[in-house]
Design brief:
The chain is α+β, with helices and mostly antiparallel strands and 523 residues long. The chain is 40% helix and 16% strand. The protein has helices at 17-25, 31-41, 44-63, 72-80, 107-126, 150-153, 173-183, 227-242, 257-266, 274-282, 289-298, 303-313, 318-325, 330-346, 358-361, 400-403, 418-427, 450-462, 476-485, 496-500, and strands at residues 130-131, 137-139, 156-159, 165-168, 191-200, 212-221, 250-256, 352-354, 377-383, 392-396, 411-417, 440-444, 467-469, 490-494, 503-508, 514-518. The chain binds histidyl-adenosine monophosphate (HAM). Keywords: Nucleotide-binding.
C-alpha cells in the first residue's frame, strides 16, 4: 500500500531498548510467556505502562490479520507500543495505529504518494484538463441511490451536530455532478476536469482494497460521442506507459451497457427484467448451469433465449457479437467500433479487450460496473496476471444529473485508485527509488556564527536551492552522515579559518572534494 510500503527500519530507529524488546516480544504468538519475559526484562519503573501497552498489542495481534500481506501488521505492532517507548507516568499510551483500513503517510511514504500524484497531475495537464476540488464531507443524499449498490451500504455516514445527514464521499462523481448542476448554463461546455481526492468505503479489505483510498478522476462533461471515452482511455494508457507499465502487463476490458441491453432485447427480455436477468447470469460461475437456466425460466426466459443470451455474453469479438445480434446490436456495437478505430489512431488499441461477460460488468445489485449511473461504454483496467483487483474504471453516465433533479448533460470519466497501482508497480519492480530532496546542508562550526549561517541559508534558498540547516551543535561525523542520508549534494561548513577569510568550506558529497568558496560567490 502506498502508505506502508516504503517505511524503512530507519524510521523506527530511536526506540528505547526496553521498547524494542517489547515490540519484538509482542510479535510472539505466546502472550503468557511474553508477558513474563517482559516484566522481568524491563525496569521496575517501566513495568506498569509496558504491561498495559503489551496486553493491548497482543490483543491487537490476535484480532487483526495483515490485510495486504505487506508487513503492515508488524509495523502496526511496533507502533502499538509506541516509538517513544513506555512512559513512567500512570497514563496509558495512546493507540498509535491509525483506524483500521486507513493509512498514515510518514515522510518516506509521502515521497511515493507525491510522485504518483505528480504523474497523475502531469498526464491530466498533458490532456488539457483543469483541476477542481470539493469537500470530502458531502450531503448523504448525494450517494444514496435506490439501486441497492454496494457503495451505498459501505457509506461512512452520520448526523452532524446540526442534525444534517452527511457522508464521507465513497467516490467523486456525484460531487462533480453537483458542481456541474451548480453552474447550470454558466458552465462552458465541454468541460474537462480532473481531481485527486480521498474516498472512504467501509469495505472488506483485500490486497489493494482499503477503507480509504485516493482516487484520480478525469471527466469530460458535455460530449455525447465516444470521442470522450477514447480521450479518457488515452490518458489512462499514457499514465501506464509513463510509469513503465505496458499492454503486456495491463489490459482494459471494455463493454457497454447498451450491449447488454441489445442482447436482452434480441432475446425479448423486457427492460424491467434487465437487472434480474443480469444478476442470475452472473451466478453462472457459482451455480450449475441448469440452476441458472431454471431461474431464468422462472422469469419467463425461454430455453432458446437463455442459450442465446449466454452465448452472446461469452463473445470476445465485436464481429462475432454483431453477427449474433443482427440489427439489434447496431447502436451499441457502432459505439464500440468507433472507439476501437479512435484507439488505433491514438495507438493504444493493444490495451483494449472487448468483454461482454457479466462477471465484471454487473454487480450483485444488477447495476453495470457496480454503479447504477453508467449508461453507455464502460471500462476497467485489470492486471493480466490476474493477481489484483480492478486498477481503474469508468464509463459514460449521461443521466446522472437528471437523477439529481437537473437537466441531463452527457458525461464520461474514470476513477483510478492509488492502492492497486502501487501493488502492481511493486510486483513489477517499477517503484521509483525516491530520496529526500535537499541540495545543501549547512553546519556552523562555532555557535557565535549561527546568524551568519542563517544569512547563507537565506541567500541560497532565494536562489532556489533546497537547504537544510543543522539547528544544534553536532559533531562533524554526525553532520556528514546526516547530509548523506538526506541525499544532499553539498555540506557547507561555516567557521574556522575559511570564515575569517570571508568564505565557507564546501564539501562536495559525491566527489568528497572540499573547496573554499567566498560567501559572495555562493550559489
Ligand atoms: P469505481 O470502479 O468504484 O468507480 O472506483 C474506481 C477505482 O477506485 C477502482 O478501479 C480502484 O482503483 C479504486 N478503488 C475503489 N474502491 C477502492 C478501495 N476500497 N480501496 C482502494 N481502491 C479503491 C468510481 O468510483 C467512479 N466514480 C469512477 C468514475 C469517475 N466514473 C466516472 N467518473
Amino acid at each position: 500500500m502506498l502508505g506502508q510500503l516504503t517505511r524503512s527500519p530507519a524510521s523506527l530507529a530511536g526506540l528505547r531498548s526496553s521498547t524494542q524488546l517489547v515490540a519484538r516480544l509482542s510479535q510472539s504468538s505466546r502472550p503468557v510467556r511474553l508477558h513474563r519475559a517482559i516484566t522481568s526484562a524491563v525496569s521496575q519503573a517501566d513495568q506498569e505502562a509496558t504491561a498495559a501497552s503489551t496486553a493491548a498489542a497482543v490483543q491487537q495481534q490476535q484480532q487483526s490479520s495483515s490485510p495486504d500481506g505487506t508487513g503492515t501488521q508488524q509495523q502496526a505492532q511496533q507502533r502499538k507500543v509506541g516509538a517513544a517507548g513506555p512512559r513512567t507516568s500512570s497514563k496509558e499510551m495512546v493507540d498509535t495505529s491509525p483506524p483500521r483500513g486507513t493509512r498514515d503517510f510518514y515522510p518516506e511514504d509521502m515521497r511515493l504518494r507525491n510522485w504518483l500524484f505528480g504523474e497523475w497531475a502531469a498526464v491530466a495537464q498533458l490532456f488539457g484538463f483543469e483541476q477542481f476540488d470539493v469537500p470530502v464531507l458531502e450531503s448523504e443524499e448525494l450517494f444514496v441511490r435506490k439501486a441497492g449498490e454496494e457503495i451505498t451500504d459501505q457509506l461512512y455516514n452520520f448526523q452532524d451536530k446540526g442534525g444534517r445527514r452527511v457522508a464521507l464521499r465513497p467516490e467523486i462523481t456525484p460531487s462533480l455532478a453537483r458542481l456541474v448542476l451548480g453552474k447550470g448554463k454558466g458552465l462552458a461546455l465541454p468541460a474537462k476536469w480532473w481531481i485527486v481526492g480521498q474516498c472512504w468505503r467501509y469495505e472488506r479489505m483485500t490486497r489493494g482494497r482499503r477503507r480509504e483510498h485516493y482516487q484520480w478522476n478525469m471527466d469530460i462533461v458535455g460530449v455525447p460521442g465516444v470521442e470522450a471515452e477514447a480521450e479518457l482511455l488515452a490518458a489512462i494508457t499514457t499514465f501506464f506507459s509513463r510509469v513503465g507499465i505496458s499492454a503486456a502487463d495491463v489490459g482494459i476490458k471494455v463493454s457497454s451497457r447498451k450491449v447488454l441491453a441489445a442482447v436482452l432485447e434480441r432475446y425479448s427480455v423486457p427492460p424491467e427484467n434487465f437487472a434480474q436477468v443480469c444478476v442470475i447470469v452472473d451466478k453462472l460461475e457459482k451455480l450449475p448451469r441448469d440452476k441458472v437456466e431454471a431461474e431464468l425460466a422462472a422469469l419467463g426466459v425461454s430455453a432458446d433465449a437463455t442459450e442465446g443470451i449466454l452465448s452472446a455474453l461469452s463473445c470476445r469479438s465485436l464481429d462475432q457479437l454483431g453477427e449474433l445480434l443482427g440489427p439489434a446490436g447496431h447502436d451499441a456495437l457502432g459505439d464500440l467500433r468507433q472507439l476501437w478505430a479512435l484507439a488505433a489512431g491514438y495507438g493504444f488499441q493493444e490495451w483494449l479487450v472487448f468483454d461482454a461477460s457479466v462477471e465484471w460488468l454487473v454487480s450483485n445489485a444488477g447495476v453495470v460496473r457496480g454503479l447504477a449511473y453508467y449508461t453507455g461504454v464502460v471500462f476497467e483496467g485489470f492486471d493480466r496476471a490476474g493477481q489484483l483487483r480492478a486498477i481503474c474504471g469508468g464509463g459514460r453516465y449521461d443521466k446522472l444529473l437528471g437523477t439529481f433533479g437537473g437537466e441531463d448533460v452527457p458525461c464520461a470519466g474514470f476513477g483510478f485508485g492509488d492502492a492497486v497501482i502501487v501493488e502492481l508497480l511493486k510486483d513489477k519492480q517499477l517503484l521509483p527509488a525516491l530520496t529526500q530532496q535537499v541540495d545543501d546542508v549547512i553546519m556552523v562550526m562555532d555557535e557565535s556564527l549561527r546568524p551568519a549561517a542563517c544569512s547563507i541559508a537565506a541567500r541560497l534558498r532565494a536562489a532556489g536551492r533546497r537547504v537544510d540547516v543543522i539547528l544544534e551543535a553536532k559533531k562533524m561525523k554526525w553532520a556528514f552522515k546526516h547530509a548523506e542520508r538526506s541525499g544532499a549534494a553539498r555540506l557547507l561548513l561555516v567557521g574556522g579559518g575559511e570564515w575569517e577569510r570571508g568564505a565557507v568550506a564546501v564539501k562536495d558529497l559525491a566527489s568528497r572534494e572540499q573547496t573554499e568558496v567566498p560567501v559572495d560567490q555562493l550559489a
